[in-house]
Amino acid sequence: MKEIKCCICxxxxxxxxGNNPYPVKxxxxxxxxxxxxxxxxxxKFVIPYxxxxxxxxxxxxxxIHKTLKSYTYKKLVEVTEQVFGKGFAC
Length: 90
Hints:
The longest helix has 15 residues, at 39-53. Strands 1-2 form a two-stranded antiparallel sheet. It is mainly α. The protein has one domain (3-84). It has helices at 39-53, 58-69, 73-84; strands at 3-5, 12-14. It has three helices and two strands; from the N terminus they run E-E-H-H-H.
């Protein structure tokens, strides 16, 4: 089975287990070998930020996506803990 790196944390994952990382990183289609994230990053980062986008304007969504995708993993953990609470993204 073909493996790729999680585009958020760098962990090796099977292509078929990858998740679309939008809005944290550039989105991708199922089965793609680029821009996919592991289940852990999907739970810790992607889903919470997707929920945060609910009800936002397109301009706000674009700004949040642009900001998030510029973060390193360490910075993403730091910001996520500030936004959602300490220990959230451990």
